[in-house]
Fold these 4 entries.
Entry 1:
Amino acid sequence: MDQLFQPMHKVDSLFTVTEESTFWICAIIADIIGDWWYVACLTCNGSMVETGSKYHCHSCRRTYDSGLYRYKMQVIVLDSSATASLLCFDRDTEILTGIPCHDLYRYFIETREYAGDLPDELGSLIDQTVLFRVRVKENQVHKESSVFTVIGLETDPTLVANYNMFTRER
């Protein structure tokens, strides 16, 4: 299984690659920024906009009475080399939380007066060390600030312990 994560890169590699790349980094979640969910289209998972009592998808142009709540969470991560912004979508965020977005959203809205707060289940991710598989797209090469997409992650404590040497150097 260790072979899957070779080679492990430092966070600053996200900013120094010379071509579109996909690689693993080991980083600490330092913060969660903005909204952590979106209403997804029932057909294509694109973002839907509420228009009156309906939801309209800009991607596939369909309209529905409702949509699905899915995770779209921007996290700030760091290691000894740099800090970066990563975007975690539904599958990966559900791995981190262990809770489907629609369940967390429903519980959170029903028990809070202010929806802008961060659920405890997400707040507990801060300071957690995670192995992230990150994609650097062509339009992000040589950019000093960009939000990179997470396309996989691993939280197994034994595996994380094997690769967290970059986070400990700081």
Entry 2:
Amino acid sequence: IVGRIKEFAGLSLRDVLQMNNVELHKQGLLLFTEILKRQPVEIKLFTNRGICKEAIDVLLETVNCPVLEVAVEAVKAVAAFLRKEHLSCPPVLYAELQKLLGTVLKRCADLSPPQSSKRRAVSLEGVLQGQFLLHALESFRNACRLAVEFQSDPMAQENAFTAPDCESRDTLSNFSEFLLRICDNLCIPMVMSYLERAVSPSVMEVFISALNTLFTVMPNMRDKFSKKLGTDHVPCAALLDRQNLLLLRILSNPVLNQTCSSFLYNLCLSLYSVMEKERDFSQNEQEMFELLQKGLPQLNYTVPESLLLLTENPEPFSLDQSLCSHQYCFILLLYFAYTFGDRFVPEAELFLAMKTFLLSAQDRGDCPPPYIFRAVLYFLAVCQDKSKDLDLVKDDFIPPSWTFSVQFN
């Protein structure tokens, strides 16, 4: 049985593809995908370089099939193929995997929005394109997970049995750099463009999950990757209110909510690390990031709602600290976003919210934690610098006792 499975995994599928029958192509790929998904760990389908290369060649051919229905089944198979169980026999064909993943993502990027005048045709083509994008992102995420898993496998890192002519290309380091590069060049622009036309929680969940995995693909590049995300592509606070409909879907989807929260937490952690290298100050980091880790999944507000949240007062003698926790969490998220250029709230509105927040804390006799106080002062300074129409504050607006809790450069 094992022998028959191995045979079908390569040669039999190629024979099927020689036939001029689209439905047979789809069924052959579907069966191939099921074999890849259900393969017991103890059974290795691709035990040598030749068999693995044959499977990759078949996938490359079918991903480029002009019939989109066949290509969708092919990219599902790619996602199932990119698992350590299938690729752990040395040498790992990193260069071939790059070629396969690059082909998948390039084909996905080349799919233009449907232009047909027939509504039914538009609907079918749009559904297929959405499916292709989803499974292409799953392939990318699985490739990222594969790179992380291989970090703990000395044989996969060294790739000692790689042929001499491939030695410089077939390395885990090159593969990891490729993942970061193609994410920047193809994945992020492609997903952002798609989300402008459609709301898809499943696409968003896989995409954010892949980005989250990329933080650990190349640990030495983590800070650079985070800074690029925060400034060029995915400003951290923009996930709160990119589309109200998407936000509502996030709130009703626990998996997506947790995925987004985990990503924002890791992004903030990395951005803080970047800031600390550029500015010589220290704060109670552990407390601050514990606050973010607990508070981000509960920060279920749009940006306008969050600004109103900053003006609310907790009930007197209330033991419920959730309001303060949510206020502090949102201020930190704003702080990281603004520090790296994502100024998505008008300065006048932000200045008023921060002023009201501090006055409320002063009236209650509360002193915000140092990292919150520093962030609020930063906003007051930035808003005054960028806006001409701002309220003035009293000389005693900030109690002198508060300044002793913060260290300034």
Entry 3:
Amino acid sequence: MSQNTFVKTFTKEETEAVDKLKALLPDVLKTAFQSEEPYVLWGVALDKESQDERLNVLLVKFLRARDLNVDTSAKMLTDTLVWRKEFKTDNILDESFDDTIFGKVGYMYQTDKEGRPVCYNFYGDLDQDKVFGDINIFIRWRVQLMEQGVKLVDLVQVDSMVQVHDYKGASMFGRTANAKAATKEIIKIMQDNYPEYLATKYFVNVPWWGSKIFKLIRPLLPEATFKKFVVCSNDELLETLTQSIEQVNLPEVYQPPKAKAVESVQVVEEKSVEPKKDTDVNPKEVKQNEELNNNEESENKEEQEEISPAPVTEEFIEVIEEIEESKPEVVEVQKDKTVAPEDEIIEITAVEDEEVKGSKKAEKKPANDVAATGAEQQ
């Protein structure tokens, strides 16, 4: 009896298809490597004699991406192995990339409530000349990021990843030729070689134009793919993400603003100016004047205490910052702004994860009112 959580959920058809694909592994390996020696893919040996149930979970990904067609699934697996050999993907985790350039473009950070690794991708405020200056370097960096995530998918407790795509600051115009070319290539790599690795994709800080484009392409999206998409506006961002990701596990960029320490304002008392002594003044009058001055000072002090402002507390600052955060952003469409994932949004119809290629045509339904946008890779 199966002990693997995911294998237990296989349908009868999936179980049979997995057995057939497993039997074809020697042919797959021979075609890809001219050798039938087992190859280790994502920590799992592609061995037809293996009793490791993780192999079943891995193979069913390729099968689901091809609608359980064993022959086309075998070809997809073969092509993936050939690509990995030519791209030298097995060694890509050992490569180094400039963190000052790519560190803010995307990274893996913690997990969701189900233990699935989360990958964050940022599309706004990028220096395109640096990020996409060398297309090959960008592509290798992005594949490395994907491999980092896949490495965390053990196929025992978790079998997929979560993606968060942030469009804050993204513009509809101004994408360079290199940016478009790199995006197109990454989409192809991800859909051809990483099937069924997407659990949920969050689209956050989506601009107004993203919503318009999504409404146009929504009827074209297979229902299975659309169900994986979660779109949230700026004011719903934290609430939406924390439904599946613990707040403590969110990156700093999504944490609520912290109250800043405020230095207390010291009131500098003015020194009273002593009146010039007048030798001709009657001592009795001087005493009366002093009493009057004392009374006036006392009254002024009480009055000052009554109107002095309350101390600025951290709670007050939080309220101010909350008000500032809630102000609606004015969207300016300018040609000089960086990164416009327009192609990514439209190319979502090309399908990000391979499941769509093998899935049945979804019934056409009215466009959902949900404001959304598409994205690049898985």
Entry 4:
Amino acid sequence: MKNYKVLFNTLVAHGRNTGRETASSFSNQNSTYKSSPGFYITGETYQGKNGYSLKLEGLERGINDNAFERGIVIHGAEYVSDAFVNMQGYIGRSQGCPAVPVAVSKPIINTIKNGSCLFIYHPSYIDKSAILN
């Protein structure tokens, strides 16, 4: 941000129950497999079932503050790719995580880990945010 330069422009998956081709339904509850919009602070990295991953802390009560407990993290996924889009018509879906292509997951995670502000946007979120209102 300091240099006003976009470092990464890539596909990002949303949760499988958030919507088929576009995100339309969100949740802050466990086991919904839905994404949560809003502001997050990035945490530490770890090696998990989805490989190299980045913990997220949701900052907005009732919108995304259960993200850590839900296991919502940034991770790479094979289903987030142009090849998957060509096969299915849209990218695959996560269990609620913002999943990115495997090829860029490590550089993205290493760039934003440990205290960056992450924002996940959807038009329906704007009126609900205590941070923005």
